[in-house]
Amino acid sequence: HSLWKPIPGQFDDFIATPKDNMYQSLHTAVVGPQGKTVEAQIRTREMHRRAELGIASHWRYKEGMRRDAAFENKVAWLRSLMDWRTDVDDAREFVDTIKSDLLDDRVYVFSPKGKVLDLPAGSTPIDFAYYIHTEVGHRCRGSRVNGHLVPLTTKLKSGDQVEIITAKRGGPSRDWLRPDLGYVRSARSKQKIRRWFRQQNREENITFGREQLRRELKRLNLADGIRMQDIAHLYDYKNVDDFFAAIGFGDLNSQRVAARILQELRSQEVFPDEEETYVAVTPEGIRVKGVGDLLTQLAQCCKPEPDDPSPIVGYVTRGRGVTIHKWDCPNILIRTSKGEVERLIEVDWGTGQDRIYPVVIKVRAWDRDGLLRDIATVIAEEGINMREVNSVSVQKTNLATLTATLEITNFNQLVSILDKIERLPNVIEVNREASHRITPAPSPRLQELD
Fold first, then answer.
1. Scanning 36, 199, 229, 448, which has the fewest C-beta atoms within 10 Å of its C-beta?
2. Residue 179 resides in a domain
3. Which position has the higher pLDDT, 60 or 358?
4. In whole angstroms, what separates CA 158 from the centre of its chain?
5. Residue 57's domain spans which residues?
6. Do residues 315 and 322 lie in contact, with contact meaning Cβ atoms separated by under 8 Å?
7. How far apart are the C-alpha atoms of 326 and 309, rounded to whole Å?
8. Residue 26, strand partner residues
9. Are both 120 and 192 inside the same structural domain?
10. Cβ neighbours of residue 80 under 8 Å, at least 6 residues apart?
11. Alpha-carbon distance 137 to 123, whole Å?
């Protein structure tokens, strides 16, 4: 108070009048440098110990008991849990977050100073940064693991030593909340990122959310036929601005919203001419992926059964379709030893009710060596069958156009694959091709885009 002007009414003496839990401290607030408010708490080491660990610590130290590191770690964990609760606005969301982070497997990593951090398995350097401190997480821009620069999507392993590279200012990226990019694993980290975006300018979040959703709808060829007010109501938002803001600060994922819109339109038969097919199923209930109506039968040599947990495989025969074997069947082992693996196909036990949707996508890109191969690899890694492909390249402009028919099982899968293809080098854009573009639908639920 001799250095800065105290703010009237902001001084509390909890030393003379302790709280019921024996908390003692002096609280004050002053007008500090540059006219900013500075709050201060002043107390002794013993008072601080009691404030941090509670009245039990006062009793323990008064009784002369030895310091119990395990006990203090448990108290510290409970305190972090309470701090965590302040980051989550909804009680149910908090419980779900606790389950997600506490019931998973764990990894144990080291800070540069040798401190051990207990993280959920699959955690990344960004998760590590948020466990160190919220501000460290917000300003994280790079990381070193065991002395080597690594991507922020790197999965940490037990025993790793992790160092975080931070910027002087700035905040998290919205990409960190995208599950398909793999930047963040911990639910606790995701909550802190969402909280940061909630605290930003509301208009900025609305604008960003609107543009993100428009971009996803355009890729799905849906940009001209949707009334956003109706979609906002699907997600229990009273107005469109709240809906867009929720996308902007990460409570809603624009890709999943777009996939749900496509599903809603399909359920209302806005795409009446788009075909819907079923996976080939044998009378025994074998589902064969990507073979259409090809004849299938069960092998008599190993007699695979649905109740048997042994993995199964399909073998393409000459003139008799696909025969289903156990993976450890002697006949299969003999054929694989002879290098006949190209005649093996993936199969599994099915219910006969799994549906496949053929969807046509169109990719525009600057032509280069390996473009078609890279696109096919991304599709295969997603477990999606590519039924037919057409590619045209204009030598004069070096522009390539590729059209492919994919067999998908749900629309989230479609949105994900479009995003991954668009991230490939030289790809300009990728969109879903529809047999009918959406026009303003007569349904009162889905009308003209605002």
1. 36
2. yes
3. 358
4. 22
5. 5-62
6. yes
7. 10
8. 13, 42
9. yes
10. none
11. 13
